[in-house]
Each structure stands twice: as structure tokens, then as C-alpha cells.
Amino acid sequence: MANIKFEYIWIDGYKPEGNFRSKTKVIEMNSFDGDISKLPEWAFDGSSTKQAEGNYSDLSLIPVRSYLDPGRRNAFFLLCEVYNPDGTPHESNTRHGLEDWKDMWIGFEQEYVISVDGRPLGFPKGGFPAPQGPYYCAVGAGKVAGREFVEAHLDECLDAGLGISGINAEVMLGQWEYQVFAKGSLKACDDLMISRYMLHRMGENYGYTIDLHPKPIKGDWNGSGMHTNFSNKEMREKGGEKMMTEICEAFAKTHEEHMEAYGSNNDQRLTGLHETQSMDTFSYGVSDRGASIRIPSSTGKTWKGHLEDRRPASNADPYLILKKIQKTMKNVKF
Ligand code: MG
């Protein structure tokens, strides 16, 4: 028998975006084969996480997916959903109710800023580095900051079994991106959540805070987004200019509804500058990085493949993004 550590991970009740919370349960077992149905539910004090009143505060943690935790010995991450004492999903539980479309392929481009004392890593104390230009996909001291941490995060994500498909330094110094790809809506969102959890936890070792604010530095500095690439079976196999146009037109009709679910303070980022469309305008176009939805040039050539929704902010909740995308996709006749 071994003592295996299970990290029960959930999102708290803070608004507009919740924070990660987690705690460890040690369970004696021979080994763990990934079957979460063998693991117990657990409880926590919701009055300490803005999820309950003090007099009736026990909430349930139901494990929904497990991952190897490469950063600890004999350990696993357990992504959990939060439930009320009466068995209903807690209002902070946005994962509940997302239909798991198995033929949906999702690629999230998660941008974030490594922050120290409230300033991006690499920014001089009390001042600013040279203007944007040299930092995107850069190499060399002074042009990038935090690579050691970024590489360590990539390795641990891969070891955990997450579908990370790449990393790059972003347009602002101290700003980075990684891409999460998965087949199936729930797997994509779950992988993204664990990758974010790992960013925050690994940041502890370096004294780094992970800033997911969509516009961390005001002025002529790029904000952080989470472009969401998506396709279903019909888009990949049948396709056609007519189908792709119909999808974009369906998204035009639900623009405002989507914006409500795409992260707080996104208006500071979607200004029409810095490779964005402005918040109150919807547009689409082939290879257009100033559009709300970009039809990638590869899709534009064959009219088969994915579309890129460029509107979600870096702090957006992936479950809410996918709920909106799937709802709008239901309005399209494939
Ligand atoms: Mg990017």
C-alpha cells in the first residue's frame, strides 16, 4: 500500500472571476489507475471562499477528472465541481451543464503576464522598458523575461498529460502564451483549467504572480486574450464557403451575449488597436487579425477547418466560452 496524495481543486465564489482553491487528501491504496469513481467526495467550508453563509457552510467537492501531478511524489490533481448540500450544482460551478461535444476540437491560446510586485517581469523599477516591437517570439536577455519558469511549466503540463501544443513569448515584455488543444469540449476546458492552476502553483517557487487581467498595463501595450479556435466534424470534413459564412453570421447575431461571457475588463483590451476588433463591433474575415472572428488562411483556402474567435479575454472562463459557442452553433444548419 502507498500513501497517494490527491489535490482536490475547485473555483471559489469571488466575482467577476473566481480563484483556484485546493487541498490535499492522502488516501492509502495500492495504486491509482485514473478511475475517479473510486475516489471519495470531499467537503469544504464555503463561508471561507464566498460560496456559503457561515451557519450552513459545508459544500461538496465532486472529482470530475484526474491528472498526474508531476511536481509531487505519488500525487494527482483532481479537478472538482462544487455542489450544494441538497445536491444541486453551486452557482459558481460553471462546468456543470456544458454539453460535451466529442467532435468539437478546441484550441485555446492562453496569454498571461508574469508579474512581480504588481509589475510585469522585466519592467525596470518605476519605469518602462523600450516600446513594443522586439519582444514577440524574442530570444536574448532583455528581450524576454521568465523563460526558465515558462519552460518548467511546459514540461510539467506535458508530464501531467495536458494537450499543450506550443509556447511563445508575447508582444509585451513579461507576457507569454501557451496553446492547449483537445478533442472534446470538456477535455479542452478541463486541461486549460489545470494548466492555469499549475501556472499559479509553480509561480510560488519563483515569487511570480500570474496576471490574467486582459489589460494589465494601460497605454500602448498589448493586452492579454484567449483566442479560441474551434471546429466540429462538419466544418472539418464537409466545409464550404457558405457553411463558414453562415457560422460567422450566426455569431454576428449573438455578439453581445458572447461578450458578457468572455471575461471582465475585456473592454479595455478590445479597442480596435493591438490586433483586436473593438468590443461593440462584430466582424469576420479571412486572415484578419483585426476581426472578431478570423477565418484562418488555411480554412479560407479549402473552406474546411476551424475558425478563431478572437474575442475571449485571458481571464475568461472556458466553460462559459464553450457554452456560448455551442449555443450559437446550434443556430447553424450543418
Ligand atoms: Mg497570442
- Helix count, DSSP H or I runs of 4 or more residues: 7
Q: Give the beta-strand count.
A: 14
Under CATH at level 1, the class of the largest domain stands as Alpha Beta
**Subunit arrangement of the protein:** single chain
What compounds are bound to the protein? magnesium ion
Order of H and E elements = EEEEEEEHEEHEEHHHEEHEH
The CATH homologous superfamily of the largest domain corresponds to Glutamine synthetase/guanido kinase, catalytic domain
Termini, distance in Å? 53 Å
* Overall helicity: 10-25%
**Biggest β-sheet: count, sense, barrel?**
9 strands, mixed
Molecular structure report:
The chain is α+β, with helices and mostly antiparallel strands and 334 residues long. The protein folds into 2 domains: 2-83, Ubiquitin-like (UB roll) (Roll); 105-329, Creatine Kinase, Chain A, domain 2 (2-Layer Sandwich), CATH 3.30.590.10. Helix content is 24%, strand content 27%. It contains 7 helices and 14 strands. It has helices spanning 147-160, 185-206, 233-237, 241-253, 255-261, 297-302, 318-329; strands at 2-11, 20-29, 42-45, 58-68, 75-83, 105-116, 119-120, 164-169, 175-183, 209-211, 226-231, 284-286, 293-295, 307-309. The strands form 2 sheets. Strands 6, 7, 8, 9, 10, 11, 12, 13 and 14 form a 9-stranded mixed beta sheet that branches. It has a 5-stranded mixed beta sheet with strand order 2-1-5-4-3, covered by helices on one side. The longest helix is centred in the middle third of the chain and has 22 residues, at 185-206. The chain is globular, with a radius of gyration of 20 Å. The model has no long low-confidence stretch (mean pLDDT 96). Bound molecules: magnesium ion.
